[in-house]
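Researcher: We're reviewing a set of sequences before deciding which ones to prioritize for further study. For each one, I'd like a predicted 3D structure that I can look through quickly. This is diguanylate cyclase. If possible, include the structure in token form so it fits the rest of the review sheet.
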Amino acid sequence: MALPQGYAENRSPLPKTVSCLVTPNPSIAPDLTVDAVGTILRRNKDLYYLPVVQDKQPIGLIRRLDFMDIFLSNFGRELHGRKPAILFMDPKPLIIPEELLLEDASRLVTGRTDRFSDPHAFIIVRDRCYSGLGWTLNLLEKITDLRVHEARYANPLTLLPGNVPIQDRIEAALKSRRPFAVAYCDLDHFKPFNDVYGYQKGDQLIQQVGQILVTHTDPEQDFVGHIGGDDFIVIFASPDWRPRCEHILEVFGQAAPRFYTEDDQHRGGIMAHDRRDQEQFFPLLSLSIGVVQPDIDDCRSHHDVAALAAEAKHQAKLISGNSLFVERRRSAISVFN
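Model: Here's the predicted structure for diguanylate cyclase, in token form for your review sheet.
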């Protein structure tokens, strides 16, 4: 998961959270009258939305078009001028916290099926307090930038996000301060398999691993990355990461033997040369998964999480066969103690 010295520190990662979308916008108190709000909107022709804020927290949203339709209608001002403006606000506007990932915010915006909901803007809060407005167009532009960024650093074999997007995603997960788990996945006995069956077969196997990981993770919450070679990273936001990992091992255990000849399947492995050029027997391919749940207070960067994940993977590879090891230590400091 490491890049060349100094590279990760010197680059400017793209923003990943809704905080980058905050646009200052005036708000109003809930006791303002229709007449007062009408005056504000008439004097500010470019003001299309007025969040209604009480005790620093947004409780609704007034939209210029809807409001002025009523205010400028026949006898609208005479009938409603002295009434509280909150009678004409949307009491359930879309409210998104600053720390939410842009991709999650995009799903919230596009998932609004109410035909009366506004598709153009939403309210952004920090610690439930009003921060400003967010614009859907800006959100979609940021999502596009992220897609281009991830494609630029994608692994050419699997087309999965590579080192840079993996590191960015871990940094964003730490910043969000929500629980997450990182699974480091690595094949066992891959080199001898490659030596015997060739690189084309090895590439097909790696692509199969990537497909298994993508298929059995939650696309709405989880992130699958390809570090390189036979190493993969899964960043789980879904709480059921353990059964997902166990299922991944089960599916891989069924798929791996199909990459061997029938004779090698019956033998349970292959004869190949080890790193010292000594011929020996190697069992069928297996998958090792090391999982860590980083402490968001003690892990300050992706480097700390990488150290934990690498140790978890090392422990998983000490177990024979398809294996899952969950690291109890959650602080990078404890790894070196």
